[in-house]
Specification:
The protein is mainly alpha-helical. It has helices at residues 2-26, 35-40, 48-51, 60-76, 80-88, 97-106, 111-126, 130-138, 147-155. The longest helix is centred in the first third of the chain and has 25 residues, at 2-26.
């Protein structure tokens, strides 16, 4: 089991690196492209932090953390706790804890469905038993789903 966790963790890290590379390569489309657009984002007093806030009072960084959280939930079927840890990790996204917490407080997602998708992956690609899948789903070194989410996933495997 320890060997599986080591291999699983390495594979997980590899997937994270791949997603980061894809995000970096394809992520520049929403940035301002000319100096007049960039100038519109600053205030006369030069307070860049205030300039990053929009009408709703949420900073760009907080919104970026929320966008990344949705990306991880939708594409990698990660757990809420796993996403939070990825957002704050210095080896991941490097967001401040308050930005990551904002993302977790504002993301609306079906975590049980994500647990089920992860369980299906483990069942299909690694031929794991239900108990091994459950342990991997709740493991602090694995997927970090809640016990309820993991149980739902195991109960609904085909």
């Amino acid at each position: 089991m320890k060997k599986f966790f080591k291999l699983g963790c390495l594979g997980f890290i590899g997937l994270i690196v791949l997603i980061i590379v894809i995000a970096v390569v394809g992520g520049g489309e929403d940035t301002p492209t000319n100096s007049s657009e960039k100038a519109a984002n600053t205030t006369k007093e030069g307070n860049k932090e205030e300039a990053k806030k929009e009408d709703d009072g949420v900073s760009r960084e907080f919104k970026s953390a929320l966008t990344k959280a949705y990306t991880y939930a939708e594409t990698m079927h990660m757990s809420k706790k796993g996403i939070y840890n990825q957002l704050i990790s210095e080896h991941g996204e490097g967001f401040p804890e308050d930005a990551a917490q904002y993302a977790m407080d504002n993301i609306e997602f079906d975590w049980k469905a994500n647990a089920l998708k992860k369980a299906e992956t483990y069942a299909e690609t690694m031929s794991m038993s239900n108990s091994a899948i459950y342990e991997q789903l709740i493991s602090e070194h694995g997927e970090q789903f809640t016990e309820e989410e993991a149980q739902y996933a195991v109960d609904n495997l085909e």
